[in-house]
Write a structure and sequence with these properties.
Layout: H1 7-10, H2 20-42, E1 53-56, E2 65-66, H3 83-93, E3 97-100, H4 112-120, E4 125-130, H5 137-144, E5 150-154, H6 160-166, E6 167-168, H7 172-186, E7 196-203, H8 211-221, E8 226-229, H9 236-242, H10 246-256, H11 266-279, H12 294-297, E9 298-301, E10 306-308, E11 323-324, H13 330-334, H14 337-348, H15 364-369, H16 379-385
Parallel strand pairs: 1-3, 1-9, 3-4, 4-5, 5-7, 7-8
Antiparallel strand pairs: 2-6, 9-10, 10-11
């Protein structure tokens, strides 16, 4: 049975719980989160309840210099979020879903295990990306037993040449060995169950022809890679090294098209189709997304406590900074006039909102799932979702 949003995300990891009572308990927590999401719709446009999902940057420090990273075009402050601030956020927000990451590498934070334990006290699902360069055996065992639900490895290159050209400062063989080690440790019987492991692959100019090597890695690791196009192509300095030209895309299409025949293995054909579709989005900045639920359902808090609507809203001028949880409670920021005005602007004149006007991210898929409720949704949101001007 396909579970509709938001339960499809909130139930991540539920099937891995042991014991009927634990399953019932966790299901009740997820259903409570779903009720909060539905309730949020009734409080639109400007005063929703606490966000269903929160993204917290536990550290802004990083050991790599990836060529497509947002750190390349703004100053960074290199700081870890204090554990007491993290605890306070968890207690106040009690999110159903937590993502631990930002501009930094989460494993650099010595307080990470305590943060994960603190989040688990409130029963939320926790996901975390990592570049996997620091995942030695000790950290692998700690992460496997931490209660983390999802661990995503940012790979971004299927060969030594492409990977190390993109993720400057990392060693390809060492990262693959760290993935193998984590998989091996995860197979050991343990409570709680280890996190699900995923691989994220950002398609861009330097890895655009890695499809054969990527297929081999998928088979070797036993993990289906998630392919996404490179972001920040509206930044000239990033587009210069990451964007693919139309000529390059045409050459890729000429290579992949014959490989999509019915004679090709199913996993190869599936990867090549996804690869080509995503590659087409890695040539130029995507057009702005039409629908965005993030101002009502989620928020991003960086390591120094600044609150933004999402991680894509962070810029050098802090034009969408909504407040700081070091000097105010999250609730005061979330229901503050700046946030409320921002939500109203997103409904009525998104084209004039800095960053959001050109942001390619959108929630059209969620819009489709909510379409049966359009008749009773608040009129401004209804029109915004349909793309109508108000």
């Amino acid at each position: 049975m396909k579970i509709p949003y938001p339960l499809n995300r909130l139930l991540l990891g539920l099937g891995r719980e042991r014991g009927v009572l634990r399953k019932v308990h966790r299901a009740a927590q997820r259903l409570g989160g779903a009720a909060r999401a539905a309730r949020a719709l009734l409080f639109l446009p400007d005063r929703p309840p606490m966000p269903i999902r929160i993204q917290i940057e536990n550290t802004n420090r990083c050991n790599l210099q990836c060529i497509m990273c947002g750190r390349q075009y703004r100053a960074v402050f290199n700081k870890d979020m204090p554990n007491d601030v993290f605890h306070r956020l968890m207690k106040e927000i009690r999110p159903a879903y937590l993502t631990i990451n930002g501009d930094g590498e989460p494993l650099l934070d010595g307080g990470l295990p305590e943060k994960i334990r603190a989040a688990k006290q409130w029963g939320c699902v926790i996901s975390m990306p990592t570049n996997m360069t620091l995942m030695n055996e000790e950290r692998a065992r700690a992460m496997a037993k931490s209660g983390l639900d999802l661990l995503t490895v940012s790979l971004d290159g299927a060969t030594k040449e492409s990977y190390e050209a993109i993720r400057v400062g990392a060693r390809f063989e060492a990262v693959l060995e760290n993935i193998r080690r984590f998989q091996e440790i995860s197979r050991e019987p343990q409570t709680p169950p280890p996190p699900e492991l995923r691989i994220l692959f950002v398609l861009q100019q330097k890895n655009l022809f890695d499809y054969e090597a990527c297929l081999a890695l998928q088979r070797r690791l036993g993990i289906k890679f998630q392919l996404v196009p490179v972001k920040y192509l509206d930044r000239a300095e990033i587009a210069a090294v990451c964007a693919s030209s139309a000529e390059t895309l045409a050459r890729l299409e000429a290579e992949l098209t014959p490989r999509l025949s019915a004679e090709a293995p199913e996993d190869a054909r599936e990867l090549y189709e996804r690869w080509l579709n995503v590659a087409k989005k890695a040539c130029a900045p995507a057009g702005p997304g039409r629908v965005c639920f993030k101002p009502w359902s989620t928020a991003y808090v960086d390591a120094q406590g600044d609150v933004y609507p999402c991680c894509l809203a962070v810029d050098a001028k802090q034009s969408l900074k909504m407040g700081n949880v070091a000097s105010a409670s999250f609730k005061d920021v979330w229901h503050g006039e700046r946030y409320r005005a921002y939500r109203r602007d997103m409904l009525h004149r998104r084209d004039d909102v800095p960053i959001c006007a050109e942001c390619p991210a959108g929630d059209e898929g969620l819009q489709f799932r909510f379409s049966r409720w359009f008749r009773w949704l608040p009129a401004p949101l209804h029109r915004a979702w349909k793309g109508e001007k108000t």
